[in-house]
Write a structure and sequence with these properties.
The complex is a heterodimer. Chain A is an alpha/beta fold. Chain A contains 6 helices and 15 strands. In chain A, β3 and β4 form a beta hairpin. Chain B starts with a strand and ends with a helix. Classes of the chains: A alpha/beta, B alpha/beta. The structure holds flavin-adenine dinucleotide and adenosine monophosphate.
């Protein structure tokens, strides 16, 4: 079995969100970059578990990004996986990224493609579905449980106010979220081993972009909190009812 | 040319956020001098002509029960046929679980630029620019869609409905339906609860509540207000509350009218999922809790003393 896990680079969850160049670019000064948490903790770790259960499994990682993505790719390889492919490109839009991933995926004939449920910076939730459509494969999004059973995938995914169990024959594209696996921390052996694992660099294929990011803005600052005395919580209810008209 | 909106349904009923999406679609249609049409898949119990009140002129229905089995690929192909038949060049979804699975596929199929998680109507003054949430709600981006066809998924609770009056025409749509590759083998829905992503009011508890046995302070207030319940991540991690209640950067991002946080510190990852709420109330015994910086109203006090009094006061208000 061959598995491909899509890995993206995002700012750390505590990074200060600020913009530069007339609010057209994310201000990267002092920002720590991490593997997108959904890709690392859930997609990658679940794929590693599948390989541990069946050591004949081949596990590849793919990233569409410039050379500054290599530290997070190495970190991912330190957790597990046999080799990584970096498609050497600046990210433009989701369709472009998905086209790159689909090209690599087609070439490698993977049985299983995992993505994270979304990137925590762009929040697109779209690459997985796009890759699936480009490859004409079924897609199960927002999965939090994944098992293999006789060539089928049994996947539990989130739906509004509940969950749904899906059964589908491989190959399939799955986007992963919390619940899929438990976060792991790379150990020394993994970190050393990752240095000698292949990190292949390929050039992007020609592909369109359908969207461009114009500018960013931050939510308006709050006016400040109105504090109510703990001796008189009834006053809070009155304010919420009469002033804020919240109920 | 038209605007087509996909109406999501749950157990035969059109979801609240689909009505928002329908009204949003009709506003786009108005601004571009065209009309809004809708499509509904599967068996629906509701009277769909009421969509006219939301500005939708026609509702296309594909009532084949096989569509109750959700396979994103099958649904995408039906929607693509509807887009072709209606000549739609803007397709709108509410940003639901279904949309997250279908909209990206449809984007590829139609070569239509996708903006997911929109929070405002497109700005036509300089092309077609849609505002969406990024950085898990900590910021917004303005995305220009450059393709001829465009797809938008609208975040729940981010667009205020303006009702009009009208009667939508219901038209069965004959679509070719593929054989599903994905089979739904089980569905487990928590019925009787208010859906968290659509709720107007959300009452949420954190580790400050000490244990699941104290959750009455959250659920009693929620019941009185017809609110949904939520929790911080550690609370779900230690199984005090079910996982689907976890809000924040790695959980659900919500934008209710009122978010009422009890015993939650307000870590940046928690705020990411709730800071688009219109009114935030924080009950925390620590005056230094970061949540107060993001709050509109607050009480620095012990939740175990304050909350019963709040619940009593709301009870009185509701009886009055
Ligand atoms: C990558 C990453 C992603 C994360 N994603 C999320 C996420 O999506 N959602 C999320 O919530 N967290 C997330 N976290 C965790 C987050 O950083 C915080 O640890 C978490 O939100 C804290 O939860 P809490 O406020 O319930 O608990 P605590 O931080 O323990 O705070 C409890 C609060 O209760 C107050 N308190 C105690 N007793 C009382 C009382 N009697 N009355 C009133 N107040 C009282 C305390 O003063 C304190 O402020 C993430 C962390 C990381 C690193
Ligand atoms: N540049 C990228 N390279 C590889 N995978 C990516 C990239 N961007 C996004 N992905 C994958 O697609 C998922 C969803 O991303 P998005 O649609 O941008 O929210 C992420 O969790 C990753 O698994």
């Amino acid at each position: 079995m061959k598995i491909l896990v899509c890995i993206s680079k995002t700012p750390d969850t505590t990074a200060k969100i600020a913009f530069a160049d007339n609010n057209t670019k994310f201000a990267t000064d002092g920002v720590q970059w991490i593997i997108n948490p959904y890709d690392e903790w859930y997609a990658l770790v679940r794929a590693i578990e599948l390989k541990e259960a069946d050591p004949s499994t081949i596990l590849h990682l793919v990233n569409v990004g410039a050379v500054d993505c290599e530290p997070i790719i190495r970190k991912a390889l330190a957790l597990g996986g046999d080799e990584a492919i970096r498609i050497n490109s600046e990210n433009t839009d989701s369709f472009y990224i998905a086209s790159q991933i689909a090209a690599v995926a087609k070439e490698g004939a993977y049985d299983l493609i995992f993505t994270g449920k979304e990137t925590i910076d762009y929040n697109g939730s779209s690459i997985g579905g796009m890759v699936a459509e480009l490859l004409d494969l079924p897609y199960i999004s927002h999965a939090f449980k994944f098992d293999l059973e006789a060539g089928n995938a049994l996947v539990v995914r989130e739906i509004e106010g509940g969950e749904e169990t899906n059964k589908v024959a491989l190959p399939v594209v799955v986007s992963c979220q919390k619940g899929m696996a438990e976060q792991r921390i790379p150990n020394m052996k993994g970190i050393m081993g990752a240095r000698s694992k292949p990190l292949k660099i390929t050039e992007p294929i020609a592909a369109d972009s359908l969207t461009t990011v114009g500018s960013f803005d931050l939510p308006p600052a709050k006016a400040g909190v109105k504090l109510v005395s703990p001796e008189n919580p009834e006053e809070l209810v009155r304010l919420l009812h009469e002033e804020a008209k919240a109920f | 040319m038209s605007v087509l909106v996909f109406l999501d349904q749950a157990d035969g009923h059109i979801t609240k956020s689909s009505f928002e999406a329908a009204n949003y679609a009709s506003k786009i249609a108005e601004q571009s001098g065209t009309t809004a049409e809708a499509i509904v898949l599967g068996t629906v119990a509701d009277d769909l002509s009421v969509l006219g009140n939301y500005g939708v002129k026609k509702v296309h229905t594909v009532s084949d029960p096989s569509l109750n089995n959700f396979d994103a690929q099958v649904i995408t192909n039906v929607l693509a046929q509807a887009v072709a038949a209606t000549g739609a060049d803007v397709i709108v979804f509410s940003n639901s679980a279904a949309a997250k699975a279908v909209a990206p596929r449809l984007s590829v199929k139609l070569k239509a630029g996708l903006v997911s998680g929109a929070v405002a109507l497109p700005d036509f003054s300089n092309g077609f620019v849609v505002k969406k949430t990024v950085f898990s709600g900590k910021a917004f981006a303005h995305i220009a869609v450059t393709s001829a066809k465009k797809i938008i998924t609208l975040n729940p609770n981010s667009f205020t409905i303006e009702m009009g009056s009208g009667i939508a025409e219901i038209m069965p749509f004959a679509a070719t339906i593929d054989t599903a590759k994905v089979t739904v083998t089980a569905v487990n829905k928590i019925t009787g609860e208010v859906s968290l992503s659509e709720a107007d009011i959300v009452i949420s508890g954190g580790r400050g509540l000490k244990g699941p046995e104290n959750w009455g302070l959250v659920t009693d207030l929620a019941k009185l207000l017809g609110a949904a319940t939520a929790c911080s991540r550690p609370v779900a991690d230690i199984d005090w509350r079910p996982h689907h209640e976890h809000v924040g950067q790695t959980g659900l991002a919500i934008a209710p009218n009122l978010y009422f946080a009890i015993g939650i510190s307000g870590a940046i990852q928690h705020l990411a999922g709730v800071n688009r709420s219109k009114v935030i109330v924080v009950i925390n015994k620590d005056p230094e809790a970061p949540f107060f910086k993001a709050a509109d109203y607050g009480i620095v006090g012990d939740a175990f003393e304050v909350m019963p009094k709040i619940i009593e006061a709301v009870k009185k208000l509701k009886q009055a």
